[in-house]
Amino acid sequence: MFDLKQAVANAHFVTFLTGAGVSTASGIPDYRSKGGLYADLASPEEALSIENLQQHHLAFHDWVTKKMYYPDAKPNVIHEKMAQITNAKGAIVTQNVDGLHQRGGAKHVVEFHGNLYRIYCQTCGQQIDYQTYLQSDGHAEDGGIFRPDIVLYGEPIKPDVINAAVEAVAKADLLVVVGTSFQVYPFAGLLQMAQSDAVLAAVNREPISLPAGAHMVVGDATTVFAAL
Ligand SMILES: [Zn+2]
């Protein structure tokens, strides 16, 4: 029987690969799941695409500000335990754009898809706080359009982000996938960069497909992490 607590204790470097399931306990709806954030949309890929931002920036702004910002969400026990573990010996690579890993105290976080709370003007690069962005996406000084620093459909991941993620995976002798179906590429492809003898585990409500030899922990991640 696989013991995650023992595996964490034994590991020299632990890298967590995290997705929406880590933030649902903080009240942020699960990306892609039934009843989740995009359930009422025929095509979320269109709403969150670079084309939509470029061609219909007001519709983009309206959708993003109504559906994606949960500024009152607080880090939960998963964020807190991961922060403790990785600040001592590890890293987190997350698909989440909510910033909750850092707010939970984690120091070694790679935000693979960016951060909703970092906003900049596409014309001049000036950064503003999200409260201002929630009111308007227009930059009065130069007529530019503000946007959140997240990776939209149709946009590549920045090379320095990929490099940091690959480094975090390649250094690990224990890799733990948490709260993601792990089907979105290139995120899921990061596992190919793991050491051949690294221990691989996943924590998720439902079993997910993993390479041979990986350990699947099926259950509520808040319960699993509270026990670590
Ligand atoms: Zn500007």
From TrEMBL:
| EC number(s) from the headed UniProt entry | 2.3.1.286
Return the Pfam families for the record: SIR2 (PF02146)
Q: Per its UniProt record, what InterPro entries does this chain match?
A: DHS-like_NAD/FAD-binding_dom, NAD-dep_sirtuin_deacylases, Sirtuin, Sirtuin_cat_small_dom_sf, Ssirtuin_cat_dom
In its UniProt record, a GO molecular function of this protein is: NAD-dependent protein lysine deacetylase activity
Looking at the record, the residues that make up the Deacetylase sirtuin-type domain are: 1-228
Is Transferase found in the keyword set? yes
Report whether Acyltransferase shows up as a keyword of the record: yes
- Which UniProt keywords are present, listed alphabetically? Acyltransferase, NAD, Transferase
Q: Which PANTHER family match?
A: NAD-DEPENDENT PROTEIN DEACYLASE, NAD-DEPENDENT PROTEIN DEACYLASE SIRTUIN-5, MITOCHONDRIAL-RELATED
Q: What is this protein called?
A: protein acetyllysine N-acetyltransferase
Provide the species name: Lacticaseibacillus suilingensis
